[in-house]
Specification:
Blueprint (H helix, E strand, L loop, with lengths): L16 H11 L4 H6 L3 H14 L5 H15 L2 H13 L5 H9 L5 H16 L5 H9 L4 H24 L9
Helix pairs in contact: 3-9, 4-5, 4-6, 4-7, 4-9, 7-8, 7-9
């Protein structure tokens, strides 16, 4: 059971309503994570801005894979369930590819390099080696993309920490 309140969307603070309305329009519902965030208009707004900005970074399949890898590192049950669902349903990742992503790898060489780097960033809290940087560059990633991978890891740390603190009730189906 969640340790932080999960308000019904219509009972969330007024300043959280525009973000909740946007989420409802996109997903047809408001998942528990966003309902938890809605307790603080400042936090739900900050998350929405970060998420919107990073939606222009990398491709959606890479972002979903990174989310799965980071959730595994941080032991975030909610984010693992959410990104398993969204990765399978919207990004069309296979069940096998979802499991590989959790391990920080992929059948696709370039994706494998991104995930190995992302997992290393998560595990070392960013204290990667020059060899780690060289490996992701050799796979074809630019400096801008290396920063984007790191930022997507950070975004997922944010969601993992909130969900781990809140013990957010999982509201995504098993895939």
């Amino acid at each position: 059971m969640s340790r932080i309140s999960i308000p019904e969307p219509h009972l969330a603070p007024e300043a959280s309503q525009p973000t909740l309305n946007t989420i409802t329009a996109k997903l047809g519902r408001v998942p528990n994570f966003f309902r938890v965030l809605s307790n603080s208009p400042a936090v739900i707004g900050a998350h929405a801005a970060l998420n919107q900005g990073l939606s222009k970074a990398l491709d959606v399949r890479t972002r979903e894979r990174i989310a799965l890898a980071v959730a595994a590192v941080n032991g975030c049950e909610y984010c693992n369930a959410a990104h398993t669902f969204t990765g399978y349903t919207f990004s069309k990742l296979s069940r096998e590819e979802i499991e590989r992503a959790r391990q920080g790898t992929s059948e696709e060489p370039k994706a494998a390099a991104a995930l190995a780097f992302a997992r290393k960033v998560a595990e070392t809290r960013g204290k990667v080696s020059q060899a780690d940087i060289d490996a992701v560059r050799e796979a074809g990633f630019t400096d801008a993309q290396i920063i984007e991978i790191s930022a997507v890891v950070a975004e997922n740390f944010f969601t993992n920490l909130i969900n781990n603190v809140a013990a957010t009730d999982v509201d995504f189906p098993d895939i």
